[in-house]
Design a protein that fits this description.
The complex is a heterodimer of chains A (109) and B (111). Chain A has 109 residues and is mainly β. Chain A is 0% helix and 60% strand. In chain A, strand 6 and strand 7 form a beta hairpin. The model of chain A has no long low-confidence stretch (mean pLDDT 91). By secondary structure, chain B is mainly β. Helices cover 0% and strands 53% of the residues of chain B. Chain B has no helices and 11 strands. In chain B, the strands form 2 sheets. In chain B, strands 2, 4, 5, 6, 9, 10 and 11 form a 7-stranded mixed sheet that branches. A 4-stranded antiparallel sheet of chain B has the order 1-3-8-7, with no helix packed on it. In chain B, strand 4 and strand 5 form a beta hairpin. Chain B starts with a strand and ends with a strand. The relative contact order of chain B is 0.33. Classes of the chains: A mainly beta (109), B mainly beta (111). Chains A and B meet through strand 4, strand 5 and strand 10 of A and strand 4, strand 5, strand 9 and strand 10 of B.
C-alpha cells in the first residue's frame, strides 16, 4: 500500500524560500497533493500534480516530482508569516488518498 | 456555496456512549471519506464511499460504522465510544480529479 513520509518540522526566515520534502512508496499514484492546515482549521488544497508531470508552478508555489526517486517537494517563494501552518503531502491510488504526517512550517522573523 | 459541512464542531462523550457525526456536501461529489487526525499521526482514513449505497473500510475502521444512503450525506457512527477515539475528525468529499474539499472538523473527547 501507499506510504507517505515527511519531515516533521521546518524553520525558515521570513522572505526566504521554504522547501518541504516528501517521499512516497507507491509509484502507481495517479495524483500527488499538497494540503495546508492552519491552527484549528481543516485542510485546504494548495496544489496537486499529475504523475506524468515533473513540475508545476502556481504563483509562489512550485511543485517538483522526481518519479525515479519517488520524491515530491513543495517550494514556497518569499515565505510570509501567513505561510506558517502544517503542510501535508498526499498520494492517491485507486479510491484512497493517503496522507503523510505533516510538516510544521515555522517562520522566523 | 457551503462545500462540506460537519456537525457538531465539538462533542464530549462518556465511555460506552454512541453518537453520529454528520457530514453533508452540496457539490454533488460521488466520493466522500472520513479521516481522524491525532498528534504526530497525520490523517488516517477511517471509511470512504465512492457513491450512494457503496462504502468501504480505510486504515482504521474498527469502532466506526458508516452509511451512504444519499450522495449528499455521509454520517460516521461511533458504536461504543472509547478514550482511544478522542481525536479530531474530518470529513472530505472529492472531485473526479481527486481534489478533496474538507470540512472544518469535529473535535471529539471521550472521557
Amino acid at each position: 500500500g501507499e506510504d507517505v513520509e515527511q519531515s516533521l518540522f521546518l524553520s525558515v526566515r521570513e522572505g526566504d524560500s521554504s522547501v518541504i520534502n516528501c517521499t512516497y512508496t507507491d509509484s502507481s499514484s495517479t495524483y500527488l497533493y499538497w494540503y495546508k492546515q492552519e491552527p484549528g482549521a481543516g485542510l485546504q488544497l494548495l496544489t496537486y500534480i499529475f504523475s506524468n508531470m515533473d513540475m508545476k508552478q502556481d504563483q509562489r508555489l512550485t511543485v517538483l516530482l522526481n518519479k525515479k526517486d519517488k520524491h515530491l517537494s513543495l517550494r514556497i517563494a518569499d515565505t510570509q508569516t501567513g505561510d506558517s501552518a502544517i503542510y501535508f503531502c498526499a498520494g492517491a491510488r485507486d479510491d484512497k488518498i493517503i496522507f503523510g504526517k505533516g510538516t510544521r512550517l515555522h517562520i522566523l522573523p | 456555496n457551503a462545500g462540506v459541512t460537519q456537525t457538531p464542531k465539538f462533542q464530549v462523550l462518556k465511555t460506552g456512549q454512541s453518537m453520529t457525526l454528520q457530514c453533508a456536501q452540496d457539490m454533488n461529489h460521488e466520493y466522500m471519506s472520513w479521516y481522524r487526525q491525532d498528534p504526530g499521526m497525520g490523517l488516517r482514513l477511517i471509511h470512504y464511499s465512492v457513491g450512494a449505497g457503496i462504502t468501504d473500510q480505510g486504515e482504521v475502521p474498527n469502532g466506526y460504522n458508516v452509511s451512504r444512503s444519499t450522495t449528499e450525506d455521509f454520517p460516521l457512527r461511533l458504536l461504543s465510544a472509547a478514550p482511544s477515539q478522542t481525536s479530531v475528525y474530518f470529513c472530505a468529499s472529492r472531485t473526479t480529479a481527486g481534489t478533496n474539499t474538507f470540512g472544518s472538523g469535529t473535535r471529539l473527547t471521550v472521557v
